[in-house]
Amino acid sequence: MITLSVIKADIGGYVGHSSSHPDILVLAEEKLMEAKKEGLLVDYHVTRCGDDLQLIMTHEQGEDNARVHQLAWDTFIAGTELAKKLSLYGAGQDLLADAFSGNVKAMGPGVAEMEFKERPSEPVIIFMADKTSAGAWNLPLYKMFADPFNTIGLVIAPTLQSGFAFEVHDIKENKKIVFNTPEEIYSMLVFIGAPSRFVVKSVHHRETGNIGAVSSTQRLALIAGRYVGKDDPVCVVRAQGEFPAVGEVLEPFSHPALVEGWMRGSHHGPLMPVAIEQSNPSRFDGPPRVIAAGFQLADGILIGPRDMFDDPSFDEARRLANLAGEYMRRHGPFEPHRLPLDEMEYTTMPQVMKKLEGRFTNLD
Ligand code: F6R
Ligand code: MG
Ligand code: MG
What we know:
Number of helices: 10
Helix content: 25-40%
Order of helices and strands: EHEEHEEHHEEHEEHEHEEEEEHHH
Largest sheet: 9 strands, mixed
Bound molecules: fructose -6-phosphate, magnesium ion
Number of strands: 15
Shape: globular
């Protein structure tokens, strides 16, 4: 069995919240290289999406392993020290705990991990997003694993016909439920169509029970009890064979769906698929970005990455994202560009409201 762990954190932006400084990536690379030499990791790849440092690791320690989590935490701490030296913006922003306590999950970093038996050929796509939150994967995961208009394999490939089981988390009430698709898609959509609260955590093949996808579901604001930036989630998807083909996995992103995030984590905007190099949210701190790093696993070694959105077939999605972004921007501070009030609860706005509290008087 091999475990693929993606652990990420924003430990400092360059410039502002727009991107990452190359020295931080070099430092993280050194830390993970050491861990590989010591035998803790089978392999690793360090990358970034916007201002988020992404540690992609394979190992044989299983999910939620304290040593692997400690390695990620120590790497983020070392990165934060360097970020402070370089006076990067918001150094250590996502590290919400003072000291490591066994698992980074509730400490700020985003985590997506899956343990599985590697197939003779194992294509995996790692999606990473910036300036958006955990629910951003709901729509694409639904399309990949449950929508025949996206995934023709559901219709014509015998290996996919039994459908997929979606584990959905209610991140406000801390509950979970499993929906079997296709027969329960109507009920499931009631929930996952509200991605600020209900988040697809994982997807399993119903016949083999094998895991097809896992996402990070940490919501920073809920952990911290106040606004500390958006979650900037990650999602790992296995492709081909009993899972959607690589092209079916990428296809949902040809439509730049509106997600929450963007400027000050307080707006709806289109999720723009871009090449890794282009994941530098600039206009109005956005629009939100998604990158896709493709790998072939070979006994746990990460062969890759291939930069999957670095392709002209996503040009129109990017153009549409710019048009949709422009259309949304024209609303300025008005909803539905600005998030609805109950979501604004997790931004800096409550402080402004507090200041004006005494000014409100009763209507007759
Ligand atoms: C959104 C984001 C940025 C910041 C904005 C203000 O997720 O990271 O849009 O919210 O640049 O940043 P601060 O409050 O750090 O000055
Ligand atoms: Mg940031
Ligand atoms: Mg970020």
